[in-house]
Automatic annotation (TrEMBL):
Keywords assigned by UniProt, alphabetized: Cell wall, Glycosidase, Hydrolase, Secreted, Signal
Identification of the protein by name: Polygalacturonase
Chief subcellular location: secreted
SUPFAM superfamilies for this protein: Pectin lyase-like
GO molecular function: polygalacturonase activity
Amino acid sequence: MGLCLKLRTSHVISVIVILGILTLRVAECRNKHHHHGDNGGKIEYPAINCRKHSAVLTDFGAVGDGKTSNTKAFNAAIQKLSTYASDGGAQLIVPPGKWLTGSFNLTSHFTLFLHKDAVILGSQDESEWPAIPVLPSYGRGRDAPGGRLSALIFGSNLTDVVITGNNGTIDGQGSTWWKKFRAGESNVTRPYMIEIMYSDQIQISNLTLINSPSWFVHPIYSSNVLVKGLTILAPVDSPNTDGVDPDSCTNTRIEDCFIVSGDDCIAVKSGWDEYGIKVGMPTQHLIIRRLTCISPDSATIALGSEMSGGIQDVRAEDITAIDTESGVRIKTAVGRGGYVKDIYVRRMTLKTMKYVFWMAGNYNQHPDPKYDPKAIPEIKGINYRDVVAENVTYSAKLDGIQGDPFTGICISNVTITLTEKPKKLQWNCTDIAGVTSNVTPTPCALLPEKQGVDCAFPTDRLPIDDVQLKTCSAAH
Ligand SMILES: *[C@@H]1O[C@H](CO)[C@@H](O)[C@H](O)[C@H]1NC(C)=O
Ligand SMILES: *[C@@H]1O[C@H](CO)[C@@H](O)[C@H](O)[C@H]1NC(C)=O
Ligand SMILES: *[C@@H]1O[C@H](CO)[C@@H](O)[C@H](O)[C@H]1NC(C)=O
Ligand SMILES: *[C@@H]1O[C@H](CO)[C@@H](O)[C@H](O)[C@H]1NC(C)=O
Ligand SMILES: *[C@@H]1O[C@H](CO)[C@@H](O)[C@H](O)[C@H]1NC(C)=O
Ligand SMILES: *[C@@H]1O[C@H](CO)[C@@H](O)[C@H](O)[C@H]1NC(C)=O
Ligand SMILES: *[C@@H]1O[C@H](CO)[C@@H](O)[C@H](O)[C@H]1NC(C)=O
Ligand SMILES: *[C@@H]1O[C@H](CO)[C@@H](O)[C@H](O)[C@H]1NC(C)=O
């Protein structure tokens, strides 16, 4: 596939191998269930809610030639379908074709469904991307102090929204944005691919997302968010192409995703310094499972660096990373305030990593000089267990903040094998406290061995675990 060509050559092999395995599995499925999935133009798909009304994008004058702008067609379609919100809701089918569009807004009780051969292409015409207010918990645009541009697919103050497909594609055509950003030629914050704000009951699933201008999927100030079965691909040297960024969200479940990215595969956030502290909305009750990540210069899962509203109760399990800088990384700084606590991680399989464990309090990027130097973050109750890592350069770099140690760190049942030329100091620890059990190579003195300890992982279920998907259908 074309995208591989853009990846750094040294990573191409592993990507191709993995994509090859996935393709093989899909091919097997298709043979076995010949009549399931795409049956005479009728497609069945799982969703939190099915819709009574249905329309096809071409009913609104859309042209799928990859050249004609369809921004008006998307907006007209969704405006029309919004009138069914209180009458069973509606779905908009995006049929096979290449559908160029600028930013458009979603509506409530609505499903956007992409056929497997549908490609939504992000417009390269900047006038197709309206400016919108900066996020209150950030106080400014993330790239630039000026404004920010609306996401390609944007939703605010909504209930019950599904963005799904039969593995259809959304291509942000990000390269022109990356070039401008790198050259410092933009005074406005690049758009995200999908951003949902102040919303409840969101599903984003069964899609391939490629080349976002910046972050891919950004649910913020929202609750009951299900992200499932996404393939997210960007060149490993593209700027800020985070995969999924749950930000000030409660009850989020991210599962079965495959992410190759130039930044963190998942970045858990809750606002930036004094702005995040003021808004005070944590990200909490977050499940991340069955994630595969490739990101040579970033984290598999980052907690922060913007964590000023707090991050609590994160449960990550069955995580695979290949050729990635670190596993679950905590990034914070003086001035952030907030907390990162009750973090649970189990069953990570890691191969070719710079760091297995990494946490630090020196991420000194601030929105402006008005941050409060007395706002120190609280980092405690961080649990990692059942980890196998190979070809590792540093086992751990764990640096708390002087006078503000990171405490309650527990690491158990971990086997790390090192690269041919490992660093001499494998565990570099300052200003931290906790215990380890059955970990090799031998941890630092600040994490003494406590025999027989299995670090905690919660056994209760979260409400987002119990969300049931119905079988809906789409004709095209
Ligand atoms: C979806 O498409 C991507 C890109 O072609 C592919 O790598 C992935 O295996 C597909 N996923 C499914 C479930 O078919
Ligand atoms: C989309 O929503 C934003 C924020 O609510 C609003 O500013 C903008 O005008 C909307 N765009 C359209 C085309 O309705
Ligand atoms: C950004 O730059 C453009 C052109 O260089 C200029 O017209 C615009 O006023 C600037 N916007 C802000 C918010 O500084
Ligand atoms: C959206 O919800 C937020 C938070 O509840 C509220 O402050 C804002 O006014 C709402 N916006 C609209 C357009 O209703
Ligand atoms: C969506 O993906 C899941 C696996 O993640 C699969 O079970 C389901 O059949 C897929 N649905 C469609 C319509 O492709
Ligand atoms: C230790 O971790 C490995 C790898 O996840 C797992 O297979 C094994 O069951 C764990 N052992 C214990 C005692 O939990
Ligand atoms: C091991 O890691 C090094 C980088 O430290 C990398 O160059 C090498 O290709 C990796 N080896 C294998 C077998 O993956
Ligand atoms: C250990 O970490 C400290 C604090 O970040 C750093 O100053 C020091 O250089 C590190 N030591 C080694 C040997 O890497």
